[in-house]
User: Fold this.
Amino acid sequence: MRSLAGKVSTSGSVSQTYRLESHAMIDNHFRALLPKYVKPLVERLAALGLSPNQVTLIALGIGLLAALAVGSGFLFLAIALWWLSRLFDALDGIYARSYNKTSDFGAFLDIQLDMLAYSAIIIGLYWQFPEYSLQWIIILLCYVLCISGALGLGSFEKSQEEDEPNGRGLRIASGLAEAGETGIAYTVFLLFPEAIAVTSWLWIAILTITIISRFALAYHKLRNPL
Assistant:
């Protein structure tokens, strides 16, 4: 999940004709800081002979284990597994760029498996807390709208040949609800399950703001003049 307008590119060219401003709350800062602290881990991945795509698959596997832990009621374990999976999710891109192993397929695989992991956690929450089934269904629907809007705007940005400030491999319009915010929402759900009746609707509101913001931005920037 991304904010009003960042983007992802494998191109190195810079276009001065048009730019959508990025408003990512957490992710951009995290991406800027993390490479400074994970160099030993990246070197270890290289020493093991793993490919960036294999690291992406490891991230998915840990994320699915987190979802299974949620559904089984091991909520603290689920939190730990989730954040470990997100660490590996960040490492794949850093590793690929550090060792010149980036690829368009790797970027595609990353976003596909990210969405699978995010959705799996919601399914785990649905299983563990069925009394909030309506909220979980709405959240999944919001995820569909969030990622489709992000990719749609990202595709437009690609046509403008803008540079990539966020170190991603696909152009994806960012938003109020991104990966970092999603992880925080999941952590809050699992730490304070008695508050899910409130926090789930707050998360839905944040997702809705992201969806509406992207739609408004697309209408403003992409519509044909009358």
About this structure: The chain has eight helices and no strands. The mean pLDDT is 82. The chain has one domain: 27-219. Helices lie at 27-33, 39-47, 52-72, 75-98, 104-128, 133-159, 179-191, 196-222.
